Amino acid sequence: MLILVHPWLIQILSLGFWKNPLKGELSVADLPCAIQIQGLSKTYKTGFWLAPKVSKALKGLQLDIYENQAFGLMGLNGAGKTTVIKLIMGLLKPTGGNITVLGGSVSDRLIRDQMGYLSELPYFSKQHTGRELLEYFGTLHGLSGKDLRHRVDEVLELVRMVKQAGERVSGYSKGMMQRIGIGQALIGKPKLLICDEPMSGLDPVGYKEMRDIFIDLKKSGTTLFLNTHILDEIERVCDRIGILHEGELKAVATMTKILETSVPVDYWIDVDSGEAPKFHGLPFQAAVQKNGGVQISGMVLAETLALMTSRRAKIKGVRPLSSIVEAYFLQTIGAHAHLRAPEGSRA
Amino acid sequence: MSPAHPQSALLKAAPLAILLLFLGQAFLSARLGRWVHPEPVEYSQAVRMDKRVASTLRAAAFLSGYKVLVGHAFWIKVIQYYGDSFNSLDRYSKLYDYCSLASDLNPRFISVYTLGASALAFHLRRMDEAIRLLQKGINSNPKDQRLKLMLAAVSYQDSGEFDKAIPFLEAQIDQGDAPYMLITILANVYEKVGRYGDAIKLWQKILRESDQQEPRIRAGLKLQELYGLEKSGKKAKP
Amino acid sequence: MKRIAAVAVFTFRELVRSKLLFVWLISVVVLLGLAFLLSILSYGDILNIFMDLGLVGMEVSGLMVLILSLAVTYTTEMDQKAIYLQLAKPVTRGEYLLGRILGFFLLNALVVLGMGMVVVGLVLFLGGAPVPTLFYDCVVFLLMEMLVLTVVGLTFQMIATSMVGVVVYSFFTIFLGHLTGEIQWLLGKELAPATKFALQVVYVALPNLEVYNLKDRMYDPTMVLGLPQWEEVVLYTIAYSFFVFLIGWVNLEKREFK
After folding, report:
1. Which residue in chain C has the smallest CA separation from B33?
2. Same structural domain for residues A251 and A291?
3. Is the pLDDT assigned to residue B229 strictly greater than 50?
């Protein structure tokens, strides 16, 4: 019997029944803070100066990012995620509140020396080669001579750009630009890495490579702050997530807490058509499909699997019909979740 | 940025530094301005104009495609040259050349011919140059009557037949927008032929209408002279 | 210093490798060809006229390359946001601006000196007679003018919100900077107090580019160019450049990148 399960499924099964979602921050008071945001607000004034339009991009944001953790910031387009990152990086000035990064201010050059930043859709001078760009950014970090060359080689190896290092940026694809972008963010061996949509423009291979880089960085003790839409990235890389909606932080929780408290999602159990009758007569509601496969609520997943095991049913795979994080996100921002059978199923 | 940060201190000092540097560069600029222009601008520019510059200008104008623009700019310099009394030392020897260049740059600009010819003929008594300039103008503007009238006036002036030049000069002035120089020329011709009353009217016109001090002073002096002549009934010297 | 040098080299390399130098090469051929043609059409010493017009060509090509560089890099740095990643590095905004100024000036110096070498080479080849010392003085003055205009142009780049703004402000600064004599003349006339005040502000705020216009005074017998004049011109260059640089730096510090 081969069971293909989602990586988080093991944890889900060990946690038991679902509880109602909780809002609020998980207390990890013992961990030092990489970024401390207190009462952060940002207001934009646009239009004619005599009658300006005022729009509040952020309203009193309160957030702590702990060291050696990966934090994912989620939100709809226009929620203010990039604004948060730009405020952290000092590219924007806050209207109110303050931000402490690695115990100091980002305007301090020495603090920035310990940081790496990748902007959304990074753009580089097309006249330089990848190697020259990394050497330039490395020089800005104070590297020179052999140390610089060695570090550049290291980073090129890390981001899989060794072959294209000698080519001009004008010939790079989107994915290559993104990889060079992450390379320049890593050139100074940062303690804190801030990325705005790092997976943007990457193909599946590039996406996997980037994800592996993030996981390796996290293991080596680098603090990650990721602004992303990609739920899989959040689920696989991040330890904590924050949900920003209309300039307000709606929720901050660890992945564990999300799994404990998240809304139930439906699951799809893949079985051969001959096994379907074994799913009849279940003591709880289950949608049994004619051609194989059963859709059941996550609340009764454990019991269903236990029952099927006892009936010696051959289960080919189990997968959630929607992401747990997605469900948590949608519930937090108050949207409706539409659950459908996965594409390619024999429903 | 923390208040104690050195960058913060530099930024705080920046406005004062900007003000001090602004005052410093303004002072130096004023000093250097006197080095660049030791004399009043018009004077120095008029003196610096020479044949080589003029011919370079002609070539540049033709090649650049901004002939008329350059022509107008150059015509201003010609007027400044003629208006600068320093150049009277050599009796405005380059006036014909400059008028000729200005007409090359801007052949349709009638004032070049009328003013130039007036100055050459009636002031400097260089009739052949004046006639050449007018003929050049007539070739470029065959339908323009003013130049033909002017040519006739200059020709009569040349032959000493001042009274025959009068109708042509009057016709020029009647066309309107006649330069004051032309009016003074006609006034002088009236005086030469003994028509003091007509001369007085023209000098009175200049006194009333000119916005420059020099022609008005000259008009005042001439009127005094003419009132005396009219009273005494004397004829002016030829 | 290392960071400033790194930004300068990065900027210089970017500009040299862009197609701007092709523009410069074409301008060298066109302007020098024009100078040669005009010197033949004129009367007088052909080689002297060629040198005069060669100096004009050097200034024109330097200004053209400067304005084009400012326009092109504005698009890259501000519109395409390449500046974000650089300002996120441990380099202060003042160092970044200074490095950019140096990079731009290096390119301009290359353009001006390159063309100067061609002029001198042609004059020596055609004429055989040595080039007058005043010609080299003119070139140095031209370089100082380029430095001032580079600082002004990059300051505009920090202030302007569009590429067109950068080009227009720079162009009018260059144009009005050469009219300081005329502005001085106007200030001597009877004018309304408000007009006079506005003109005075324009006169002191703009760079006095006529100070560097040695080529128009080369044949002026009354011109004096000794050590005191050199000192004042160099001092003025430093004072004005630093004054404008501070304005650019303060603006860059306060600028928000939305």
Report:
1. C211
2. no
3. yes
